[in-house]
Amino acid sequence: MDKRALRGLRRAVGRHNALTEPADLLLYSYDSSTARGMPGAVVLPASTEEVAAVVKVCAQHGIPFVARGAGTNLSGGSAPIRGGVVIALSRMNRVLDLDLPNQRAVVEAGVVNLDLQNILAPHGLQFCPDPASQKASTIGGNVAENAGGPHCLKYGVTVNHVLGLTVVLPSGDIRRFGSKAEDAPGYDLVGLFVGSEGTFGVTTEMVLRLRPLPESTQIVVAFFDTLEAAGGAVSRIIAAGMVPAALEIMDKATIEAVEASFPSGLPTDVEAVLLIEVEGLEGALDGQAERCASICRELEARSAEIGRTPEERERLWSARRSAFGATARLSPAMLVTDATVPRTRLPEVLRQIQQIERKHGLRIAKIFHAGDGNLHSNILFDRDDPDGLRRAEAAATEIFHVAAGVEGTITGEHGVGAEKPRFMSLIYSREDIEAQRKVQRVFDPAGIANPGKVLPEPEAAAEGTA
Amino acid sequence: MTALASALRDLEAIVGEENFLTATQTVSGYQIDGQRPVAVAMPGSAEEVARLLRTASEQGLSVLLRGSGTHLYLGAPPTPIGMVLSFARMNRLVEYDAEDLTITAEAGTTLGALQKTVGEHGQILPLDPPGPDSATLGGIAATNLSGTMRMRYGSPRDLVIGLRVALADGTVVKTGGKTVKNVAGYELNKLFVSSLGTLGAICALTMRLTAQPEAKQIVLASLPPPTAAEAVRHLLSSRLDIATLEVANSAACRRIARALPVTLGPDRYLMFAGLMGDRESLPRQESEVLHLLGPGAARIQGEDADSAWAFLRNAAFPAAPGSVVARLSVPLSKTLEAADAVSSWDGWWAVARAGSGFLHAGPVDSGDLADVNQRLLHLRQTAQELGGFAVLEAGPTELKREFPIWGENVHDLDLMQKLKETFDPTGVLGCGRFLQGL
Ligand SMILES: Cc1cc2nc3c(=O)[nH]c(=O)nc-3n(C[C@H](O)[C@H](O)[C@H](O)COP(=O)(O)OP(=O)(O)OC[C@H]3O[C@@H](n4cnc5c(N)ncnc54)[C@H](O)[C@@H]3O)c2cc1C
Questions:
Q1: Alpha-carbon distance A459 to B262, whole Å?
Q2: Which of B139, B168, B222, B379 is buried most, with the most CB atoms less than 10 Å from its CB?
């Protein structure tokens, strides 16, 4: 890294918070995807002003920068694939304003999702987005990815709960978009910025909408002998107009992984488990829960039971939350996809994914936010098998094609990152992508904010499909 | 032939003679704030819209997009209008996947037609913007109008999941898609929703739907302002999941009070708590809300409740052409303070959307415009002191010329201008109605 630039970075954040030792850099060279890239420096700013000072140095020297929360993203979003400076927001972890009467919180980007929930819960409030990674992932990362989570079925994704942002633009300018009050006149810069994966600049603070916690929840757990039947139950429940808080499916491979690592008492001889959570007023949930259970039975669930105790609920949810980690433990080499499809297409898409699995002789562990049509197909492969990654990638490509074929999308919540720009043309035309690029250039004309992410290179877009 | 005449000829060729109006008498019906367009084009497809926009952009002819014209009172008085581009013919249902709870329709589809279609399947689009059901989906999205169910279901920003947009360069682009969750690429839906037709023309929309509630009703009570404020605080922090929470002052209620089973004194607010849900939860909600609102509270159902909802919904709609309607947006807990400020004036109505932090207000009689102007400035200041802002949504042209309707200090105008220049380089879209001429 350029000496003058490095001096500038050190001045911006203090010598101790600018890392250049190879061992440190290595820690920031990857995220939870397969993408990798060595940064030239890592900085740990403590304030919006320090972030701005860092970004100004980058702008001056034309150095790329990559914002980083907890690095839990599954698409290569925070891997510095073009080198440059990693701006790690872990020190910016203060809740700045807990505004209970207005049901708003103002937090710094590095606040961990679950830490915020734990602060809110005693007040009977929550921040609705609850990615399964909430123990580690940051609100800044959630905003940058427009993250979802099991309970987004009922409450919507991150963007529906973000009202304001403080951002540092790639020029180093500090801006405040939105506020605690809603519907300011003008273009919706907040909505546009959410989900931009760090390519429009760095978000340092956010104004969040809070909601009262539900009074009561009930969980229904159903076991199926085919994955399709579980998918069918989900389609049916949605079609019946019910809005459970969550509808989650785990397949046999995932259940086995969970039971191997975090035994939760799930049967390993079924093809799928469906978790249904309904929320609302105490004493008013039995009917809903019973209707969900009976739909499952009609679809020949082996069993469909209403969980009665909080312990039972917690046990099932921790099984669900551990599913990803457990699967990763089973097979450290894993390609994660999260294609999303219209919910009526679930059964046929599930059938096709199983065919892909067989065709490539791979194991695909499936963890679905099924109520949203969001299908996490985790493709397990063997790193020692020279052909492993190639086959996994071929399977992933086919899954994207299947999703695109039913008017679905290549990613429902994980983001495009470094891994999927080449698949954008499966769902968007060249003009669609150019319109997106124009917006990106408004924010980042120099192309230094997390380059190589989200959009395909202009030439690649012109080539048509991936 | 003059440049204008040749531009008009090109435009007419795109939609055909029968869909291109220039007769003075006919185009007069399309005037806003006294501005009469030169021509009105009624395209039949997104491709035609795109060709119209490209030609207009090349020829520097200004374009005003029009759904059914129900909300064209919003915005600054337009600069001279070259062409009104009407979506009247683009009202087809593109795709309705009832079991997926999503629908795709052309932008000129009216809200009423859409509700009828989905109603047959027991579903609703949970949006009830002020004004008649002849409002179009494109217009509702472009204005981001929401209504009484906002606190539960959000606004078009939350409900639109995909758009087809015709751009000034003649291309038609897709933003978003058909799935309820989608993070592939940037969220351009958000850019076009609420842009008041200044960046491109929304030609079709995909929106999420919801099931009709099994049961609904309103609990209402006439309360002294401090008691109303207290009740709002309780209801907002409760776990009852109220769908509508509105508070109207006595001047506002004159419009409906006669029809309601409560007596409204002066210096009192009428509070409406709208409950929607399944039959299992409604009784609990009802009894708790009744209890909270005290002995004077009453419950209305069926047609009575529907007409109360319609009153609340339409409160923000100008009662007559030229009626003044201001909107204050403030942090949630300040809504009733804003209502108090308005209610201290004689002859000013106010309806607070207490679950979302909005207050709509205006003079019952807007005769003295100088006075109205002063008071609007005062309201803006009040809103700012409460941590929000105010916009003038409707008013006579004269007032809209005087009063900075969108506010004076717009943040980040430079970025907005860049977005505008990017999508509308010749600046023909919108006729200067949006803030600072965007
Ligand atoms: C076990 C597991 C479960 C998961 N479950 C879910 C789930 O249920 N739902 C879901 O949506 N995702 C899920 N994810 C994915 C991931 O956790 C989310 O994408 C999360 O939002 C990332 O947050 P992070 O703090 O780790 O951000 P990072 O991974 O560090 O960064 C993500 C992206 O955001 C950018 N970024 C980070 N912070 C900022 C900032 N302050 N300003 C600008 N850009 C920034 C980065 O540059 C990068 O592009 C899961 C991941 C794991 C490992």
A1: 68
A2: B139
Contacts of B333 in chain A (CB under 8 A): 101-102
Q: β-pairing, A216-224 with A272-280?
A: antiparallel
Q: What is the pLDDT of residues B348-405, one digit of tens each?
A: 999 999 999 999 999 998 889 999 999 999 999 999 999 999 999 999 999 999 999 9
Q: What pLDDT score does A415 carry?
A: 97
The ipTM (two decimal places) reads 0.96
Q: Which residue of A has its CA nearest to B187?
A: A192
Which residue ranges form the domains of chain A, and what is each CATH number? 3-88 (3.30.43.10), 95-212 (3.30.465.10), 216-324 (3.30.70.3450), 326-405 (3.30.70.2740), 425-463 (no CATH)
From chain A, the residues in CB contact with B185 under 8 A are 416, 424, 428, 432-433, 436, 454-455
A71 lines ligand 1 (CB under 6 A): yes
Q: Which of the four pLDDT bands, split at 50, 70 and 90, describes residue B409? A: confident
- Chain B contact present for A416, CB below 8 A: yes
Cβ A202 vs Cβ A67: under 8 Å: yes
B250-280 burial, b if ≥16 CB within 10 A, otherwise e?
A: bbbbebbbeebebebeeebbbbbbbbbbbeb
Q: Which ligand 1 atom sits nearest the alpha carbon of residue A74? A: 15
Among candidate residues A418, A411, A424, the one with its CA nearest the CA of residue A452: A418
Encoded tokens for A160: 């529906």
Query: Which residues lie across from B363 on neighbouring strands?
Result: B348
**Chain B contact present for A235, CB below 8 A:** yes
Q: Which long-range contacts (CB under 8 A, 24 or more apart) does A92-99 make?
A: A92/A45, A92/A46, A92/A47, A92/A51, A92/A140, A92/A204, A93/A138, A95/A119, A96/A205, A98/A123, A99/A180, A99/B331
pLDDT for residue A283: 85
* pTM, 2 dp: 0.96
Evaluate whether A340 touches B183 at the Cβ level (below 8 Å): no
Distance A141 CA to ligand 1 centre (A): 4
Asked if B237 reaches chain A (Cβ–Cβ under 8 Å), the answer is yes
pLDDT tens string B168-213: 999 999 999 999 999 999 999 999 999 999 999 999 999 999 999 9
Tell whether ligand 1 has an atom less than 6 A from the beta carbon of residue A153.
no
> What CA–CA distance (Å, rounded) separates B319 from B317?
6
Q: What is the pLDDT of residues A190-221, one digit of tens each?
A: 999 999 999 999 999 999 999 999 999 999 99
Could you count the other beta carbons within 10 Å of the beta carbon of residue B79?
Answer: 15
CA of A343 vs chain B CAs: smallest distance (Å): 5
The tally of CA atoms less than 13 A away on the side-chain side of residue B437 is 7
